[in-house]
Fold this sequence. Notes:
Blueprint: H1 8-22, H2 33-37, H3 46-53, E1 57-66, E2 69-78, E3 84-93, H4 97-112, H5 131-144, H6 149-165, H7 170-186, H8 191-207, H9 212-224, H10 228-241, H11 246-258, H12 262-275, H13 281-292, H14 296-316, H15 321-333, H16 337-350, H17 355-367, H18 371-383, H19 391-397, H20 408-417
Antiparallel strand pairs: 1-2, 2-3
Amino acid sequence: MSAEGDQKYFCEGIAEEILNTLARIEGLRVASRTASFALAAPRGEVAEMGRKLGVSSILDGSVRKVGARLRVTVQLVDAGSGYQRWSERFDADLEDVFAIQDRIAENTVRTLGPLLGGATGDVRRSRRTSVDAYDFYLRGRQLVADLQGASLRQARIMFRRAAEIDPEYALAWCGITEASSWLFMWFGTAEEDRQAALEASARALALDPDAAEVHVSRALALMLGKNYGEAGKELQRALALDPRSFDATYYAGRVAFSEGRMEEAIDLMLRAAELRPDDFQTLGLVAPVLDASGRGEEAEHAAAEALARIDRRLAIHPADARAMYIGAILLVRRDQREAGERLLERAIAVAPDDPAILYNAGCFWVQAGDSEKALAYLERTIAQQGKGSPVADWLRHDTDFDPLRGDPRFAALLARLG
């Protein structure tokens, strides 16, 4: 609500911090950042928002930032009745933003406590930094969410600026790790990106070894070098610190998958889908693995639920290419090729050169029975990768590509990845 309208990154950052805190509470299912933020701009009916997000309560708020002063107005509303469960206004100096976040989370959990069987938990965030460092960190968080090359590079600049202001700010180093890891994974395997991820994650771990997200960050960097054993240990430590961490559970599933431990990968992916009830990718990824493991009924259930989540996601965020291509693959596996192809074409139109989209287009055409198109899309994907790309281990175990295992052209593409 600032007069200039230039504080979106700051407002979304505050909301995400509160969201992540609430997600740690046992029994409380919280819609993800991507789903809830898509509804933040056009204010709609609370009941309709609750239906789209699949939630029974809405935490709604506004932020006005003027110079060094901050006004945050927040209310917790029952999505069914529209009844206001709790509301409060905070007028404070900008330096008090962390205390405000804690109070909002505490009051929300206290109000919802009876619905959670009395569950509460510690929602205070122990890590603090200067307002200037936090401001750059929030700018980076908004940019990294795009998962595009230019945005990731700019996000890394923001995180590095935050770390320069406060060298002991562990989350800033985690941000550098995340941006660098995604750049290495999908936008060319530049060794300087991998090294940046390793160095930043080591720094974060030294600063705050008791934070679950720090261990997830370290695991992500280790996965880039296929050091899955050490990455798995970091993820287990993260889950010991925060058993409800979606990221730790999801990446542990990816580690198991990359090492060919399919049953463990299935269990972890299904657990991740429970932790984040609007996430579609985990179920979309695990459905074909279940099918290949002879668990057809479970595979069908996972695919149906994934498609339902994708429908809800696209209703909220119609330009989500990832939802489109995962949905396309699920549809073609259910003999709905035409519907799947239309969805895939929409995804490609969003970002024609995105390597993740190209890879999954290859998955689609394998399942559609067109090996030539599948290999052509894989060729375009691999052209953007390099020796040692973590994509290689995923490709080796991806059941979607099983029909190509005997094709020497597929073997040659794998060999190029090392």
